[in-house]
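testing teh design pipeline on a random one, pls ignore if ur not involved
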């Protein structure tokens, strides 16, 4: 093609007559960030991103490039804010440097303003059945909560409003209903707990009822190694999470249906067999050297080490191998 302006021959655009600076057109850069959590607002949505990613995003939105110019590389530097475009036009390598204005505006994000306003949609009531919560259980639950909040970082309702310690357990207040739901499901999977969901009306917006959801999560009374009675059988819990236990008489595995706690793992004593007949085993309780007589619910040998279970006034023997795994 011949340039009508200068008469030179060219392909694409005539570089004699083109101001390179005009091949790229861009807006000022406005970054909106939350001073509390550092998230960024992009197209009306709050997101957790790195500042560099925000600039990359704004470049893709703010910059218009001449169709004949093929961009090969974009370099960004700050202080002052400079964007260098490297590319090719009319078979010539060009470099165009732009210094747009970069404005950083502060605005409290939805999540932070909800959080500071005490907003919550769900309560998780963590309890343990017929006992107190244990330190490790609380730690595990905190881990689960942190994991879920991390995974939901762009969810504007993924936060804890408050944690209230009560005599009977701990109440966690969550911004979103789904957070309460997800956390309680995860706890159920982890501990084999029971869950009860209920809701109350918390207000009305635009003629619509708003609800608050309560998830009552009760951890089982028994743990691995505890003794329970289920379906008439005395069993040692082997996996509380999936309700597995072993019958101390038959040594067979059972799935617990409606177990009742008989004794804690800590209450089971170590003993040694002195002698035994068809019905009774004479034992020495190794923890206090007392002699006890137990029902012969399993085969034993004289001198064998064994565990002793005391229920009411009766003693039972627990073969060693049944407890080894969970002790
Ligand atoms: Zn020209
Ligand atoms: Zn924020």
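output:
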């Amino acid at each position: 093609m011949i340039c009508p302006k200068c008469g030179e021959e060219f392909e694409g655009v005539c570089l004699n007559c083109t101001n390179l600076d005009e091949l790229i057109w861009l807006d000022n850069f406005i970054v909106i960030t939350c001073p509390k959590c550092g998230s960024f607002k992009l197209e009306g949505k709050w997101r957790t991103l790195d500042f560099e990613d925000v600039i990359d995003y704004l470049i893709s939105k703010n910059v218009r490039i001449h169709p004949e110019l093929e961009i090969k590389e974009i370099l960004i530097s700050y202080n002052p804010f400079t964007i260098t475009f490297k590319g090719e036009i009319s078979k010539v390598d060009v470099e165009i440097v732009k210094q747009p204005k970069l404005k950083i505006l502060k605005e409290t994000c939805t999540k932070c303003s909800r959080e500071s306003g005490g907003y919550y949609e769900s309560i998780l009531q963590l309890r343990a059945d017929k006992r107190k919560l244990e330190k490790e259980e609380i730690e595990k639950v905190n881990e689960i909560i942190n994991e879920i909040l991390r995974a939901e970082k762009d969810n504007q309702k993924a936060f804890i409003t408050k944690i209230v310690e009560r005599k009977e357990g701990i109440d966690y207040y969550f911004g979103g209903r789904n957070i309460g739901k997800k956390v309680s499901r995860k706890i159920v999977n982890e501990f084999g707990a029971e869950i009860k969901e209920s809701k109350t009306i918390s207000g009305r917006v635009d003629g619509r009822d708003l609800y608050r959801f309560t998830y009552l999560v009760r951890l089982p009374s028994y743990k691995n190694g505890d003794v329970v009675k289920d379906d008439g059988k005395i069993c040692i819990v082997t996996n509380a999470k999936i309700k597995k236990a072993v019958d101390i008489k038959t040594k067979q595995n059972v799935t617990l249906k409606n177990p009742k706690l008989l004794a804690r793992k800590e209450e089971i004593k170590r003993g040694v067999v002195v002698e035994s007949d068809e019905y009774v085993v004479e034992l020495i309780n190794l923890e206090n050297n007392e002699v006890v007589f137990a029902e012969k619910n399993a085969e034993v040998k004289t001198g064998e080490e064994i565990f002793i279970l005391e229920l009411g006034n009766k003693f039972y023997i627990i073969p060693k191998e049944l407890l080894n795994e969970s002790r």
